[in-house]
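Record filed below.
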Amino acid sequence: MLLFQSAKHELKAGQDRLRALAANTSAVVWHTAADGAVAQRNPSWEAFTGQSAQESMGWGWTDAVHPDDRELLMEEWRTAVEGSHGFETMYRLRRHDGEHRYMLAQGTPVTQDGKVREWVGVCVDVTESRKAELALRESEERFRFLDRLGQATRAQTDATDVMATSARLLGEYLGATRCAYADVEADSNRFTIRNDWTAEGVASSAGAYSLDLFGPQATSNLRQGRHLVVRDVDRELGDEGGGRMFNAIGIKAVICAGLVKGDRLVAMMAVHQATPRDWTQQEISLITEVVERCWAHIERVRDNAILREQDRRKDEFLATLAHELRNPLAPIKYALAMMRRARDASQVEKAQDVIDRQVSQMARLIDDLLDLSRINRGLVELKRERVGVLQLVQSALEVARPGIEAAGHALQVELPAEDLFVDADPTRIVQVISNLLGNAAKYTPDGGNIRLSAAQRDGHVVIEVRDNGIGIPPEQQGQLFQMFTQLQHSTARAKGGLGIGLSLVKTLVQMHGGNVSSSSAGLDAGSTFTVELPLAATAGATAPADMRPPEPRATGGMRILVVEDNEDGRQMLVALLQILGYEVDSAPDGAHALEVAGRFQPRIVLLDLGLPVMDGYEVCRRLREMPEMRGAAIVALTGWGAEKDRARTAQAGFDAHLTKPVEPQTLQQTLDGYA
């Protein structure tokens, strides 16, 4: 009896030791009968799995094995039992806390008289090393995938191709149902799926959508850069939370990764699954990285496309500029040749008119270029005043009428009975209206109809220029107001131009807080350009400017010194001033100018800035130091005409600033002001 109690006590002690070992180590000691079934208690197994002795008996122990691993484990175990050979495998085993752990299982048969009596073995928890191994393998696979994605898209130069390739490779890699890339509009609500990849037999989702379809919570998350991750649409989303939309396209699980730049949602990548799916963190992270890489590549591709387009337009512009500058030169040379051979005054007068018109045209081209450059650099300040629209229209018509009449167009003008007033820079708004009228004349075949109207609408003055000219094809209407743009259909049917006029119009109108738009029914259907400017807060007329040229004044032989290094320019200006009745001397550079000024003692100096050796600023400073020049006026006459250039000459001591080529009338008015 004592011997029996001692054996029983020893058995219990052994079981306690096994339980303590199982509870504090990652090893499980097990044993089975010869046929592989559990025939007696396995305390180590019970402590690790939480199964009772009764639950683990027979083949009940397999209930603790992960369902996905159970079939393969049983097949390997039966093969070992039938062959009576050692056994080693890896599977996932449910621990007593419910977590499945990776176990490396090893077993060996115990034989007696050549027959298997039982099996003994051990299971070691290798979860951490297994996770590390899987993480390394997944990292390598991820790296290989991203490298393949980079190789596939590196040479692509079209943004849509980059989207399509990225979506296809990602969808295939994840075994998804559909993968789509979308650009989000500037309003952060509308998004457009331009291209998607789908598994065989699955419909495309390409099209435009509202972000609100995702539901308020998901929409808010996406706009803040948080992904939408749904593992089971029916279980996790209600109809208002996006479930209705996803079910409508047969989707039960989705990851939508949003890309936020500068606090704005700009793009999304969505991976769809037709069945519920337990997305892993690694998959979510991979999709995020693909979106960022794809967007970065697309930005580069789009930037390069913009640069190529700008380069192309620059080349076209330079070719057009050369053409437009040569055009006036030809009639000028012909007119000069005719003047040399003319036998009567009418031929000379005709040649002079040609030269005057063509030089004025060249000056307008250059002024447009300079204006656009200054405006784009923020160097133009509007000189606003309250001015009536009738005055603005009248001034614009004076500028544009010669071109309209030369083409034989019929001009219809419709103006309100009572004047409308705007707070605007009159010169700039006249420039806008005359530019639109000039465009209408240029792009309308000779003998066409042009209508100019002004009216009040919704607190704005609406100025409209309509023609029955060559029109604008729908696909080209979005390009109208881009810098250096001339529409393809117009190049053979218009009468020249640099393609900068409408860009200048748009910029000037926007600077006034207004808007300009265009419409056309298509080719040969005419065009309409509409300018909207805010009405002045209160009515109040400004007296119309006196457009009549001032009466000539007697010069009284006033002495003028011309300092100009261009020989032809200097001689022609001297001759013109002498014809106007002034006493004139000249100098080709600064040193000679100082010498001539000392003995000639002019009342006025017309001084170029870009002189050799000593520039105009230095010449001006030295002239001011000469006692003989005390009281003389020094006027800059230069090709530099920006506001900063005028400010610099004023600061340097010049009395006035004239920009080449100066109109003779303007020149005489300036000179007479110092008489």
In short: Residues 489-496, 539-554 have pLDDT under 50 and may be disordered. The chain has four domains: 18-125, 141-305, 381-534, 559-672. The chain is about 45% helix and 20% strand.
